[in-house]
């Protein structure tokens, strides 16, 4: 398979801190990759390495089979990489019209340059402002012209850094569609940096999620939704919860106890006495007949975009859960079902979500030699991540699990 982008072991230190480490990322030709991750996770830094606006300290980067950066000997600068870029700091030429901005980007020798540029502006629905200067356009129009200009140089790979961030919801939706269609028609690949889950659902063939400078998970949007590998990714893909629950033994399996039912979420069990539990909103529902299931009281019911969001207080258990219902639910006692397939659990300390991982802001010092790292905290995120992965590979349910009687802790988000 030909990869338009192939990154192996890339790392980057900035200001004495290791911002990216061990980045492995491949993108097949013609695919759209959304690079997601919370603020400060290193998305822009990685995009700048791909673009050739910055150099890697470790690893190798190849574009369309050609090595462009090997953290030493080889470095092809941005202008020689043949990429299309829509970066916030790559503004349009202010003294030129939109048409001239796009015409200038066309490869030398392009016949009928004005017509070719006009066709791109029409594709992005900004042909009506072709003769205006950028300052006379709205933010959304400028972004459209920026994308037209990036496509004009006929790149095989288009790089975009949060191109929709300044747009309102409707313009964002429209431009997403235009971008997706333009990229597909041109038959090129794209890498788009975002922390908006909508970009993942609506644009991505592949999603790579950065957490604290490492790629935590890469896959199709559906695979991330089905099996998020961290609390951040669970939340990013729309899971509810994030509460701490005790892990208990149930026969051979490790489980969580919900209303007297022992439920084992898919995947390896967390290693500690407590787990961080998330769930899909559809996994927790009132029982269809009102009979059976788990006794719970609906303590808050709110209407949310065509369905009802319900906060449940379990009878006799200090536990709040929340879920959805298609039909209205009266506050008060009910019975609910919980589908274990819609639950996800994680190590309490192994995840990297800023919301609840109190020691996730441990910084990494750059080592003086290549990729050698000196972590000034033995309990730092690097060690926890490493242990987390190893634990998941090794750990089966009930494998030496210290099952304990910790307490549930309420989560303001659930
Ligand atoms: N030139 C620099 N010198 C020192 N630190 C830097 C430099 N550039 C970025 N950083 C740091 O690197 C980390 C990652 O920054 P980056 O801009 O790549 O994150 P990001 O995921 O794109 O964030 P956001 O979503 O907020 O744009 C941040 O902690 C940032 O402060």
UniProtKB/TrEMBL annotation:
ABC transporter domain segment(s): 5-237
UniProt region (Disordered), positions on chain: 389-414
Family matches, as Pfam families: ABC_tran (PF00005)
Molecular function GO labels: ABC-type ferric iron transporter activity; ATP binding; ATP hydrolysis activity
Record flagged with keyword Nucleotide-binding: yes
InterPro entries reported in the protein's UniProt record: AAA+_ATPase, ABC_SmlMolc_Importer, ABC_transporter-like_ATP-bd, ABC_transporter-like_CS, ABC_transpr_FbpC, P-loop_NTPase, Sigma_54_int_dom_ATP-bd_1
Compositional bias segments (type: Gly residues): 397-407
PROSITE patterns: ABC_TRANSPORTER_1, ABC_TRANSPORTER_2, SIGMA54_INTERACT_1
Source organism, top-level taxon: Bacteria
Entry's Gene Ontology cellular component terms: membrane
SMART domains: AAA
UniProt keyword list: ATP-binding, Cell membrane, Ion transport, Iron, Iron transport, Membrane, Nucleotide-binding, Transport
Listed PANTHER family: SPERMIDINE/PUTRESCINE IMPORT ATP-BINDING PROTEIN POTA, SPERMIDINE_PUTRESCINE IMPORT ATP-BINDING PROTEIN POTA
Name listed for the protein in its UniProt record: ABC transporter
Native source organism of the sequence: Acidocella aminolytica 101 = DSM 11237
């Amino acid at each position: 398979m030909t990869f338009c982008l192939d990154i192996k072991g890339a790392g980057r230190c900035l200001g004495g801190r290791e911002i990216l480490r061990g980045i492995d990322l491949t993108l097949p030709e013609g695919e759209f990759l959304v690079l997601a991750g919370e603020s400060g996770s290193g998305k822009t830094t990685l995009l700048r390495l791909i673009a050739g606006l910055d150099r890697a300290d470790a690893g190798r980067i190849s574009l369309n089979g050609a090595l462009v950066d090997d953290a030493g000997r080889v470095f092809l600068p941005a202008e020689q990489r043949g990429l299309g870029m829509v970066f916030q700091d790559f503004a349009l030429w202010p003294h030129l019209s939109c048409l001239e901005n796009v015409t200038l980007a066309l490869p030398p020798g392009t016949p009928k340059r004005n017509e070719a540029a006009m066709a791109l502006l029409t594709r992005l629905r900004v042909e009506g402002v072709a003769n205006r200067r950028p300052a006379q356009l709205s933010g959304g129009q400028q972004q459209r012209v920026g994308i037209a200009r990036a496509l004009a140089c006929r790149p095989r790979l288009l790089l975009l850094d949060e191109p929709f961030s300044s747009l309102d919801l409707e313009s964002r939706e429209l431009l997403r569609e235009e971008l997706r269609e333009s990229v597909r028609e041109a038959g090129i690949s794209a890498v788009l940096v975002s922390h908006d889950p909508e970009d993942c659902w609506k644009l991505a063939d592949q999603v790579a999620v950065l957490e604290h400078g490492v790629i935590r998970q890469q896959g199709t949007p559906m695979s991330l939704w089905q099996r998020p590998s961290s609390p951040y990714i669970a939340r990013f893909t729309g899971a509810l919860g994030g509460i701490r629950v005790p892990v208990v033994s149930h026969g051979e399996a490790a489980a969580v106890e919900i209303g007297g039912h022992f439920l084992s979420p898919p995947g390896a069990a967390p290693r500690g006495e407590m787990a961080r539990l998330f769930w899909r909103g559809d996994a927790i529902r009132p029982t269809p007949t009102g009979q059976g299931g788990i006794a719970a009281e609906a303590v808050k019911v709110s209407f949310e975009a065509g369905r009802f969001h319900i906060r449940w207080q379990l009878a006799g258990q200090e536990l709040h859960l929340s879920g959805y219902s298609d039909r209205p639910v009266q506050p008060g006692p009910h019975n609910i079902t919980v589908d274990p397939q819609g639950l996800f659990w994680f190590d309490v300390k192994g995840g990297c979500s800023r919301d609840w991982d109190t020691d996730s802001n441990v910084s990494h010092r750059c080592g003086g030699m290549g990729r050698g790292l000196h972590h000034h905290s033995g309990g730092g995120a690097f060690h926890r991540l490493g242990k987390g992965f190893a634990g998941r590979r090794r750990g089966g349910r009930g494998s030496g699990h210290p099952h304990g009687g910790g307490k549930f802790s309420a989560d303001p988000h659930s």
